[in-house]
Amino acid sequence: MDRIHSVDASRLAGTCLPKQEEAIKEKLHIRPAILDKSLDEGLIREVLESVWPLPHANTASLLHGDFWPGNTMWKEAKLAAVIDWEDAAIGDPLSDLGNARLEILWAFGVEAMHEFTLHYQSASKTLDYTQLPYWDLCAALRPASNLSDWGLEKRLEETMRERHSLFVMQACEKLGISYKRHATN
């Protein structure tokens, strides 16, 4: 992922790639009539709305937009390709990192998420990670109001909801925000 983020956004000027910051601004602006309490959508929106737009801490780069293990192809234990670029955008690399962290937490658990994060940070030492908890919350907002529509097996959905709650909790703790876990539906 760090190689994707090494693409300077200024090289992408004039492309039709959306700006991630604007997409999130629009998502925050368009509030659903009923917030997804099971995924703490109200809290996530409240936190993000209070700080959005974030100050630019990192140089904008190419973003995959949906980086997770299911969008990678491997050959002989080496990453051969990253597929499914329909959500590509331009923005802060921490946006992709936050999404990948949640996806890895869902698929492999807390330890794998932490290992992935440490690996990414060691490969991308020039980034400012101060705002990562906000980008984690942006990632956590994505499944709100539609996780039930993904057609998941009941136990898998329950596990994902539990891990989502942990993900939101760790972001809130890093931001010094009191977090009370909501019961899942």
What does it look like?
This protein is mainly α. The chain is built from 7 helices and 4 strands. A two-stranded antiparallel ribbon has the order 1-4. It has a two-stranded antiparallel sheet with strand order 2-3. A hairpin with a 2-residue loop joins β2 and β3. α4 (93-108) runs antiparallel to α5. The model has no long low-confidence stretch (mean pLDDT 93).
Number of strands: 4
Treating each run of at least 4 consecutive H or I residues as one helix, how many helices? 7
One letter per element, helices H and strands E, the order comes to HHHEEEEHHHH
Note the main sheet.
2 strands, antiparallel
Low-confidence stretches: none
Strand % is: 5-15%
What coarse outline follows from CA principal-axis ratios?
globular
Trace the largest sheet across and list its strands.
1-4
**Estimated helix fraction:** 40-55%
| Structural class category | mainly alpha
Distance between the termini: 34 Å
What is the mean predicted local confidence, pLDDT? 93
Radius of gyration: 16 Å
